[in-house]
Design goal:
- The chain is α+β, with helices and mostly antiparallel strands.
- It has 6 domains: about 110 residues, Butyryl-Coa Dehydrogenase, subunit A, domain 1 (Orthogonal Bundle), CATH 1.10.540; about 110 residues, Beta Barrel (Butyryl-CoA Dehydrogenase, subunit A, domain 2); about 160 residues, Butyryl-CoA Dehydrogenase, subunit A, domain 3; about 110 residues, Butyryl-Coa Dehydrogenase, subunit A, domain 1; about 110 residues, Butyryl-CoA Dehydrogenase, subunit A, domain 2; about 140 residues, Butyryl-CoA Dehydrogenase, subunit A, domain 3.
- Helix content is about 50%, strand content about 15%.
- It has a 4-stranded mixed beta sheet. The chain has a 4-stranded antiparallel beta sheet with strand order 2-3-7-6, covered by helices on one side. The protein has a 4-stranded mixed beta sheet with strand order 11-14-15-18.
- Helix 18 crosses helix 22.
- The longest helix has about 35 residues.
- The radius of gyration is 29 Å and the shape is elongated.
- The relative contact order is 0.08.
Length: about 775
């Protein structure tokens, strides 16, 4: 399975751009920042190297590449170490010129696009006005016909490249009044025309190497062929342009965040305090792990969005999300890295304050955070819901050999419909009654097994229909929609834990004895690793298995075991050779009716329907034929299977988060306060938009972890840890806000919101705590 969306050509392009940035751009940061401008030759040099038209056809001066070449360009520009030059070049390549290629005539392309691609002309995009920023419909600059010409009067502000642009792609009004969407048009305006002037160069907190200007237009006469596209259609045309602008901004933000993380990682290894590198301190290691996780989440959503855009789709919601997420990410990372650098991070010498100032603009320019939240909030109330983001748009389709390889294909979407229908018929109607009873019928295992939902990742020889982990992911997601965390945990643990261990390490006789009936739902299985004094510290378990002839005698205790109190068999991890450390652990299948096995069901904050138990083993004798895999391989089997366990938990958490937000939104539409639905208030609209964006990031991150795991990559446990850490806390946050909008009702047991929160709270604990995930990620970074 192809994990990354790039070909060898893209990789070579990345190396070329990275070398150019490192050798010809980054070394001049301090000089150009002090000058407040960078040399015009940077544009011509970029044009000479072919960087300014990577995705533009060769006939118009470009390189004829696909959109993934632009993705590489955006990311690598972000690594420059400052934002001014990348922003100015981004305006040239992805803001001012794309409308010419998309809407322009051949003559306009020859006159303006071709020289811009060569770097001979500098372009600017002129939208913002003193009284109209993100409100494009509110622009006042007006163009009036005069014979075959147009006369333009007005003002533009905050225009990047404004002091030296050779032309502007400009939004003006040709009809109507400010506030009307109709009557807006695009023009290509040369800056050397009479009446066109730079009113002033603007001084800024950051992005100082990028010239930003306020422009004045007094009776500027342009010819009729300066009209770009159709008269009066400019609003739609500039909305299209803004999508590409926001994607390139998000790409640069991810590139900047990645470069900052690399600097922080190096500094954490080299800088010592209290006699050791600061990266060896857990708080810094966890800080770096959190940064790495959030970068990866945003990157994967950006890639999915780029894939949709490259396919010719128009993922407005996804683009607003990556604009919001990318801008926030870059500034947050710069702030976190400054903190890690300490006093040196506050000194201009470190270069961190420069990026901190520069990245702050991303949350304003191209549509402020608040504008993106408005866009997202309105769109998720529409038909798109929370699943419109890129995954839903590119989930089904052929693998084109480039881009993000689709995980979910037509057969998976057909399965999704079947699984959803099953859950809605057999499970959802009973959830409230089962939750009240703190139980569900054991017969449900057989029902699920007969429907085939336990066997999708297993071979048909053992009753499965796979192996297809993507199909299993579909089932996990649809099961989570029922809204009962405990029930989903019991059914999920049965097939995703003990059955998987037997499938991967068991003999054929063991598979026939335990796996086949497990897939059929005829028996219930459990996995017993955690102990009272050893949770995520697998190597610290004390349960012992001692060889006695052809048998093993097991003594010890296990706790927090899902299905533990009613399972028919348990896969138990025990120490078989205390002297061998990791190599002294082995797995055994212990049938629950054996003498010496005792268990009790635990009462928990949430997961009320789950049969989570505490087990004790007193001189439990099991034959050697019950040993699972070679003696001494148990620890490694657990580590191998943790990746799927954590990915599966992430899949469930994302759906739980989504269902919490959907439930909160539904309540917000019904509950009235101050004469209107409470969900219509901006504070809640923005809250839902923020959570929906984080859900989209979490889903993209989880899909990536699933791809990596299926491909068998060595970093699968790391990517799974990132997904689990991100998604479990997200599910808690979403449920908590669902309780909040419900007010007092959300605290009452008669409403499901309180259950969503109680159930979600286990996520950051079970399967490895948030802190353990941070340790795994941090150590993978060399700490």
């Amino acid at each position: 399975m192809r994990i990354e969306p790039f070909t060898e050509d893209h990789d070579q392009l990345r190396q070329t751009i990275r070398r150019w940035v490192a050798e010809e751009i980054s070394p001049h940061a301090a000089e150009w920042e002090a000058d407040g401008i960078f040399p015009r030759e940077v544009f011509s040099r970029a044009g000479e190297l072919g960087f300014l038209g990577l995705s533009v056809p060769e006939e118009w001066g470009g390189s004829g590449g696909d959109y993934w070449a632009t993705v590489v360009w955006g990311e690598e520009l972000g690594r420059a170490g400052f934002g001014g030059v990348p922003m100015a070049l981004g305006v040239q390549t992805d803001m001012a010129t794309p409308p010419i290629h998309e809407f322009g005539t051949d003559e306009q392309k020859r006159r303006w696009l071709e020289p811009a691609m060569r770097g001979e002309k500098i372009a600017a995009i002129a939208i913002t006005e003193p009284d109209a920023g993100s409100d494009v419909a509110g622009i006042r600059t007006r163009a009036v016909r005069d014979g075959d010409d147009w006369i333009i009067n007005g003002a533009k502000t905050y225009i990047t490249n404004g002091t030296r642009a050779d032309f502007c792609t400009m939004v003006v009004r040709t009809a109507g009044k400010p506030g009307d969407h109709s009557g807006v048009s695009l023009f290509l305006v040369d800056t050397d025309l009479p009446g066109f002037s730079v009113a002033k160069k603007l001084d800024k907190m950051g992005m100082r190497s990028s010239d930003t200007a306020e422009l004045s237009l007094v009776d500027v006469r342009v010819s009729g062929d300066a009209l770009l596209g159709e008269e009066g259609m400019g609003f739609g045309e500039i909305m299209w342009q803004l999508q590409g602008e926001r994607i390139i901004g998000a790409l640069q933000a991810v590139g900047t965040a990645e470069q900052l993380l690399e600097r922080a990682t190096t500094y954490a290894r080299e800088r010592t305090a209290f006699g050791r590198p600061i990266g060896s301190f857990q708080v810094q290691r966890h800080r770096l792990a959190e940064i790495a996780t959030r970068i990866e989440a945003t990157r994967r959503l950006v890639y999915e969005t780029a894939e949709a855009w490259e396919r010719g789709l128009y993922p407005t919601l996804s683009i607003a999300m990556i604009k919001l997420a990318g801008a926030r990410l870059a500034h947050w990372v710069s702030d976190e890295v400054m903190q890690l650098f300490g006093g040196f991070g506050y000194a201009e010498e470190s270069g961190i304050p420069l990026l901190w100032r520069d990245m702050r603009l991303l949350r304003i320019g191209g549509g402020a955070d608040e504008v993106q939240l408005e866009v997202i909030g309105k769109l998720i109330e529409g038909a798109g819901g929370l699943r419109e983001p890129a995954r839903a748009q590119v989930a089904v389709g052929e693998d084109r050999g480039v881009g993000v390889q689709p995980l979910y294909r037509e057969e998976h979407e057909a399965l999704r419909k079947s699984a959803r229908a099953f859950v809605e018929a057999e499970i959802t109607p009973n959830v409230e009654a089962w939750e009240a009873a703190r139980d569900f019928p054991r017969e449900l295992f057989r029902t699920v097994g007969q429907a085939g939902f336990f066997g999708m990742k297993f071979d048909p020889a053992h009753g499965g229909s796979g192996p297809d982990f993507v199909a299993q992911a579909v089932w996990i997601e649809e099961l989570a929609r029922a809204g009962s965390g405990g029930l989903a945990a019991d059914l999920g643990a049965h097939s995703d834990l003990p059955a998987l261990y037997i499938d991967r390490a068991g003999t054929e006789e063991q598979k026939q004895r335990w796996l086949v009936p497990s897939i059929a739902g005829e028996v219930v299985g459990a996995l017993a690793i955690t102990e009272p004094d050893a949770g995520s510290d697998v190597n610290g378990i004390r349960t012992r298995a001692v060889r006695d002839g052809d048998d093993w005698v097991i003594n010890g205790a296990k706790t927090y075991i899902t299905n533990g109190s009613w399972s028919d068999f348990v896969v138990v991890l025990a120490t078989t050779d205390p002297e061998k450390g990791h190599g002294g652990k082995s797995l055994f299948v212990v049938e629950a009716n054996l003498p010496g096995v005792e268990r009790r069901r635990l009462s928990m904050l949430g997961w009320h329907t789950s049969h989570t138990g505490e087990l004790s083993f007193t001189d439990v004798r099991v034959p050697d034929e019950n040993r699972l895999g070679e003696a001494g391989t148990g620890f490694y089997q657990v580590m191998q299977n943790f990746a799927w366990e954590r990915v599966s938990m992430s899949l469930g958490a994302i759906v739980a988060a989504e269902e919490s937000v959907l439930g909160a939104m539904a309540y917000g539409r019904e509950r009235q306060a101050f004469g209107r639905p409470i969900g219509s208030f901006q504070t809640w609209r923005h809250r839902f938009a923020d959570l929906a964006t984080r859900i989209a990031e979490g889903r993209a991150l989880t899909d990536h972890a699933l791809r990596v795991m299926i491909a068998g990559r060595e970093d699968a446990p790391i990517e799974a840890a990132k997904a689990k850490r991100f998604t479990q806390r997200l599910a808690v946050d979403c449920a908590d806000w669902a309780v909040q909008i419900h007010g007092g009702a959300g605290y009452m047991m008669e409403y499901p919101a309180q259950r969503w929160l109680r159930d979600a709270r286990l996520g950051p604990i079970g399967g490895g705590t948030d802190e353990i995930m941070a340790e795994i990620i941090g150590r993978s970074m060399g700490f």
